[in-house]
Amino acid sequence: MLVVNPLNRITIHEIMEDEWFSVDLPDYLKHSAMVEDRVLTTDDIDEDVIFALSSTMGYSRDEIIEAIKIGKVPETEEILDSYELM
């Protein structure tokens, strides 16, 4: 978690699956199936978010849009997590 490079850092999904994280976890923090099932589409594209990710994280616009089109798979997880957090 303390790794500077976000591409080498543990993902939110990996943290939530960790045994340590789930001990005595309140219900409101438990991972919802609704969040996992949500799929971004090209209609969801926010150019301001794409610009921010490009500027701060170094992703190209094409990489971000391609990640949105493909959906959440291991190769796009970091980009989509970053996009959803913005």
Q: What count of helical segments does DSSP give?
A: 6
Task: Give a quick account of the main beta sheet: strands, pairing sense, barrel closure.
Answer: none
The counted number of beta strands is 0
State which percent range the strand residues make up. Answer: under 5%
Radius of gyration: 14 Å
Low-confidence stretches: none
Distance between the amino and carboxyl termini: 19 Å
**What is the residue-mean pLDDT, rounded to a whole number?**
81
Return the structural class.
mainly alpha
Principal-axis shape: globular
Order of helices and strands: HHHHHH
Percent of residues in helices comes to: 40-55%
Question: How are the SSEs ordered, and which strands pair?
Answer:
Blueprint: H1 12-17, H2 19-22, H3 33-37, H4 47-57, H5 61-70, H6 77-85
Helix pairs in contact: 5-6
GO molecular function, one term: protein serine/threonine kinase activity
Pfam families: UBA_2 (PF08587)
Domain Carbon catabolite-derepressing protein kinase ubiquitin-associated: 45-86
Question: Could you please describe the fold and organization of this structure?
Answer:
There is one protein chain. This protein is 52% helix and 0% strand. The chain is mainly α and 86 residues long. The mean pLDDT is 81. It has a domain at 31-85. The protein contains six helices and no strands. The longest helix is centred in the middle third of the chain and has 11 residues, at 47-57. It holds the Pfam family UBA_2. Residues 45-86 form the Carbon catabolite-derepressing protein kinase ubiquitin-associated domain. GO terms for molecular function: protein serine/threonine kinase activity. This is Carbon catabolite-derepressing protein kinase ubiquitin-associated domain-containing protein.
